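ERR on first pass: missing label on line 2. Operator R.T. fixed the label and resubmitted. Corrected input:
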Amino acid sequence: MALTQSDDTKLEIRILVQERDEMADRSTNETFDASQLKNHTLAHKVYDAVVKTQSCQKHYETFCESTQIKNLQSKINYNFKDKLVLTRAFTHSSFVHEYNEEIKSYERLEFLGDSILGAYVSQELFKSFDNFSEGKLSKLKSALVNEDTLSELSMFLGLDTFVLRGKGELKEELTNSIKCDVFESLIGAVAVDSSLSDALNVLEGIIKLYEKESEKVFFSEQRLVMFDPKSTLQEYTMKNFGSLPKYEAMRVEDKFCVELWIEGQKKAEAINISKKAAMKEVALNFLNKNKEISKN
Amino acid sequence: MALTQSDDTKLEIRILVQERDEMADRSTNETFDASQLKNHTLAHKVYDAVVKTQSCQKHYETFCESTQIKNLQSKINYNFKDKLVLTRAFTHSSFVHEYNEEIKSYERLEFLGDSILGAYVSQELFKSFDNFSEGKLSKLKSALVNEDTLSELSMFLGLDTFVLRGKGELKEELTNSIKCDVFESLIGAVAVDSSLSDALNVLEGIIKLYEKESEKVFFSEQRLVMFDPKSTLQEYTMKNFGSLPKYEAMRVEDKFCVELWIEGQKKAEAINISKKAAMKEVALNFLNKNKEISKN
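pass 2 clean. output:
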């Protein structure tokens, strides 16, 4: 059956159409020269190509024929047969909304890539941590498959310079969330262009290259410490002093200053607009200063 | 670093050890004959073998050499090289707790199988529903990867008769949650015994066989209707009457009776101990009586 739209969906569509039209209005009323933006990237060049030709056809040719995209394919050891899928992996919805043409954003590819990544990480953790319970494997998986780690991999491949965004978005710094999206959508794109097993191979290759060049172990228990420093610290103080660490938060203007106290002694402090983030930060600061704790 | 145990973990372990010891006490004090239980299955036979020999070694031989397990392997078109992994796929933690031997439960395999299933379903949905947004794909995925659907597949393969449980658990009816666990752990076990790509092939084979024998389409939009009947009904009434369906709940002894009203007319009712479940049920009842709605 063809599902009908609920009121929420209708409202969402109305807002999106309105935003798109406003963007289109701005794009005809304003003169916009992407080359004037700092950090002029391939994405900006493509934006220029589209503006000049008033056609999206052009954007994908410019994109796929660039040296950077060729280098990326050589880096991930995979050559796309369907260049449209490759372009789509980097096409943000703001780009699609701005041009009312037959182009699609990366969201569906991201959906696919996300689950492929999940399967790959689960398998590697299963193999690497023989003695871990299911619960600990799940925790470590969360410490690996998250915005921080995936945007690190995304930056490692330089994917941030490829993200095709609309004019409004293009002026803003790329968020970690989008960096992470395009990493996942690239993996999804390989699966669509070829097969799930090729996507898994590409992923494996990327992780190996990352480990080699960064000299870091990707599937490392240390990630768990960094991801959840408060639990690590709590385990340390409980074991060594039989007490919990104390976090004291104070408002400092529009931010929070959080102090870490262990056994009546102030050990570290951190300032952040989010109290929760400041607590995590102060625990991490302390662990970083006392590296022997997380190695024990 | 070796993570130390938090107080919570220590408490959990203490409780588990206590429960295990209590079970072991009972197993020596009571006479227990699994063959006296109704629904005497392969799992019961294995239980008997363990009780008689006081050894878990025996259980896995009895298990793997059974005709039923051979039939299962032929049904899923995969023969396990490592029979221990196959046995583990069906070993519930209650069995492990009862015998203090070197056997492991299926939980780690389930962790792995769950994510392989996620990748497979995502890929199939991506291919089958070309015009679905990422949001709609995610919803349909939830309608497919859940306890109801997975326990259906589990029962289709007859996995319920293979679950090795401890004495206490063995007397109880198998829950949907465990049925679903062992389906996932079987897929995980194939990946461990062979490869991720073989696990994906086995999954594909199972779904095809299920579709052929049940004459149902597995990757069907209809699942979404059945999974979330309230949304489907709401879309129908909004489109046709411009109003929402009304649910009126009354307490009837220890249960809830929920009536469904559309445009001032009572259309159906359902009784359940959970109000939420009764609301879902009444919407589903109405949709089942008016099949043309979900086909439109």
